[in-house]
Amino acid sequence: MLKHRLITSALVGLTFVAGLLLLPSWIVVLLLAAALGIAAWEWTRLAGLVDWYWRAGCTAAVALLSVAIAGLVQPLAGVAVPWLALVIIIWLLVALWLVLGGRPRPRHRPGPYWGWLLLGLVLLPPLTGSISWLIATAEVPRVLVLYAIALIWAADTGAYFFGRAFGRRLLAPAVSAGKTWEGVAGAFAVVAVLSLVCALLAGVEAALLPLWLALAMVATGQSVIGDLLVSVLKREAGVKDSGAILPGHGGLLDRVDSVMAALPIMALGLAWFPGVGT
User: Fold this and answer.
1) Domain total for the chain?
2) What is the domain extent for residue 131?
3) Is residue 196 part of a domain?
4) How many CB atoms lie within 10 A of CB 126?
5) Per the confidence metrics, is the pTM higher than 0.85?
6) Range in 2-6, 121-125, 212-216 the model is least confident about
């Protein structure tokens, strides 16, 4: 399983990097929308939709919303900022719900859970919009988009390996049997190192390093929230993975859960960061 996980991570990572750096932005948006469509298809199954036509409709809605949001935030920067702020507030409310005891509920009846379906429709499309806005922001080169994604993936990797090596205390026993406090600590440690190394390579001023590191830490915490939210959804559905499209990882939703939660914060933070364009 570990071998499959590493191979899949390498292939997905290289494909994403090549596409982000080499392809025109509109193609990047379409590919991201397609990927989110797959994640939405998995989400609808977890939320209890059975009929393929309803699932296809929800999938198409997420993909179309992703493209529409990406198309709007590029020319309308004045709309993008409050929109990103609203998305972040929604994620903070999700975090508050989890902290206050949000946990899976046993399903007492068949059929879809419309609250989960609506939440997916709200939370999935902003991932494409966040990347699109960063790409379109003149002061932010694409390498910073890559940095934002790499930071979140590094958090996932650190949590996985530190959790396997040192994990003893469960982070949320009612939600996940695999996530530990030691894994979370590992995620923050790996992100802190990567963030500081990238800051030095990018020539971030010493006075701004605390702000740079704080942004990375907040995004890391939010990535954990995204992971936990999808874990709640999977536990309610009674499955371990959202799908099986990625060997060693599960479904595509299993790979974008932390990214969709953390990227809006990274997008807004990087776009506003002093002197980031240079």
Assistant:
1) 1
2) 2-272
3) yes
4) 28
5) yes
6) 2-6
